[in-house]
Design a protein that fits this description.
Length: 358
């Protein structure tokens, strides 16, 4: 296995984790190693994970005991739009969002230089070179943002650099995809007028607009409106696994045309062709999505979007400390050092630089 300490070149910057949500259960901290869930600073260092998009997500459901339990409950509850649990109200969403952002800023302070909330692509690059965990603040489902976008202005000044307008539920900005498998992402109407204003504001500020979880009409609305590279931070190929959470070939072609990218999601239910949340899923299944996306988008437009602490991982990977096993497999399948660097972080850094302008 590769020695990660000697492979800072292959430091991974990852498109999605839910560690801030997992930490709210109060059973562990980010700075101490745990066997619970998938991600903390010691396991990130052991696996060569140099940072990633840290999601702020306001749940509709009470938390389960483990990420797999949360993922199972979410998939069950959000399969049929006729029976979705309610979308959180603005006030409640802002309360939870403030608490999760504050938690990240406290982690940054307590880490004494081990963790940095990054606001530019240059800072991401610098963190990856120096071994500081680069936390990019992301909101998954913008229930905490009002239609006037006042909260967006404030969150941006605090450090927010990425948002998914919707999670897999409707809100004032648009509609998400349900999880029912198999299924098309073409479910429900496109962005609302407020959603279109949100896209324009993200372009103006330099905030990533994450297309993962957005339904297909919303996707095409963003594609038509946005002047930034199109990004799906944690989604896979619909041609290999027909989950509505995955991207059709047409969507992939639009992402390629915009010079955007896709972060490969490690959730077994979005990788497998039968959609089963089965941890006994080989890493080769993940590698097939990397192959497919690299073929369709080009090697410059694929990265990782693990969904650590928010999904069911292949047992063979386990957690963040298992990432070298994935890179080893990709190397055996013919990805050379230059390609692995692109997958690991170079593509994310390029797309962030283009989006942020800095
Ligand atoms: Zn997600």
């Amino acid at each position: 296995m590769m020695n990660v300490e000697q492979n800072r070149d292959l430091s991974i910057f990852d498109g999605h984790n839910d560690v801030l949500l997992a930490l709210r259960k109060g059973k562990r901290t980010f700075l101490e190693r745990s066997d619970e869930g998938h991600l903390d600073l010691p396991r990130a260092r052991a696996g060569g994970l140099g940072g990633g998009f840290c999601a702020v997500f306001v749940p509709s459901l009470p938390p389960a005991d483990d990420p797999a339990g949360d993922a199972r409950a979410a998939i069950a509850a959000f399969s049929d739009p006729a029976h979705f649990p309610p979308t959180p109200e603005l006030g409640e969403a802002q309360r939870v969002t403030m608490a999760m952002m504050a938690a990240l800023f406290r982690i940054e302070e307590e880490s004494r230089g081990g963790v940095k909330v990054v606001r530019t692509a240059a800072e991401v690059d610098e963190c990856l070179r120096t071994g500081v965990f680069a936390a990019l603040l992301h909101i998954e489902g913008t229930e905490a943002i009002d239609s006037n976008l006042d909260a967006l202005e404030v969150f941006y000044r605090a450090g927010l650099r990425s948002l998914g307008p919707v999670w897999s539920r409707p809100n004032r900005f648009g509609h998400g995809v349900p999880f029912a498998f198999p299924g098309s992402p073409d479910r429900g109407p496109g962005l609302t007028e407020a959603g279109r204003a949100l896209v324009r504001a993200c372009n103006r500020l330099g905030v990533v607009i994450d297309l993962s979880h957005l339904n297909e009409r919303g996707f095409w609305d963003v594609a038509a409106l946005s002047d930034a590279p199109l990004v799906a931070t944690h989604s896979n190929a619909h041609a290999l696994a027909p989950s509505p959470r995955n991207l059709t070939d047409r969507q992939l072609d639009a992402i390629k045309e915009s010079d955007g990218m896709v972060g490969v999601n490690f959730h077994v239910g979005f990788l497998r062709d039968d959609g089963k949340s089965e941890p006994d899923t080989g890493l080769d299944v993940m590698a097939r999505h990397v192959d497919y996306l690299a073929e369709r988008l080009g090697i410059d437009r694929v990265g990782f979007g693990s969904d650590f602490d928010g999904a069911t991982m292949p047992r063979e990977l386990g957690d963040a400390a298992g990432l070298p096993r994935l890179l080893d497999l990709l190397r055996r399948r013919g990805y050379d050092d230059a390609a692995l660097r692109k997958l690991a972080h170079e593509n994310w850094v390029r797309v962030l630089r283009k989006t942020f302008g800095t």
